[in-house]
Specification:
Keywords: Signal. This protein is α/β, with parallel strands linked by helices. The chain is built from 12 helices and 10 strands.
Length: about 325
Amino acid sequence: MTTRRTLIAAGLAAPALLPTGSLAQSAWPERPVRVIVPWPPGGSTDVLCRLMCERLQAITGQSFIIENRPGAGGNIGADAVAKAAPDGYTMGPLTLTVWSIAQFLYARLPFDTDRDFQPVSLHWELPNVFVVSSAHTPARTAQEFVTFAKARQGGVSYGSPGVGTTAHLCGSLFVARNGIDGVHVPFRGAAQTIPAMLSGDVTFAIDNLASYVPVIQEGRMRALAVTSATRHPALPDVPTMAEAGIPNFTVQSWCAFGMPAGVPAPIVARASELMQQVANEPATKERFLRTGAHAIGSSPDGVWERARRERPLWQEMVRISGARLE
């Protein structure tokens, strides 16, 4: 069974790479780096951040200190990153909710994504997985679930890590398209959603695959489909949404490290180059795949390009959901 502890141990056991070339010529980091994770411990963003930070620590010899600041769909932690001193010693893994969704969801935000963040590098991408509790839901396919949900007295409920997250928007789109009576139940993260589903309090979720791989492999949850265009290596027997009879439902969640705007360009370049180096390590790619995620890296401009390209899609999904927050 793959657990957060074993994943982190795997990261620690991996051989360190020595910085070379331009990396060796840069001084950053010269002291510990504060890493604010806008989600609770144990979820996909937290686990994958820790794997990245342990490799950065092994390469640089400096500590990367994790601080979990969950709440408000990731906005509390993101705001802490935005308002930190722009000296290169505070950063955080910010999901696409911050980069591409929040501006369409909230009437007011404590930060301006385009003005207040300095992207560093893409970190990971993964599909969402359509999951149900094995003990409480008889459906074994997506189509069986639609039949089950439509016939269920009082409808169904779907969990997510918060309003406006990809899990919320995917769940909302699913029930709307299939004419299902569905109620959204927001939590602070998958670490709370999963127990609620296992106890039968929540019927289903279409949430980040990485958070659910262990409980799926244990048999406590049943995966009905993944939202990627092709099947995922972590769950090769699970069909895509299209294969499961749910067309036009291809969605990828992703994350990118960000710093406060105003961090000196040489520090941003050094951090980006380091993260791209780690993302391209075969051992890193293997460890990420074990969690259900693909390790990816990019230039800072690559983060902006992806964020802005995907905004129209998420703007439309927010409209369909009817969600609007102050």
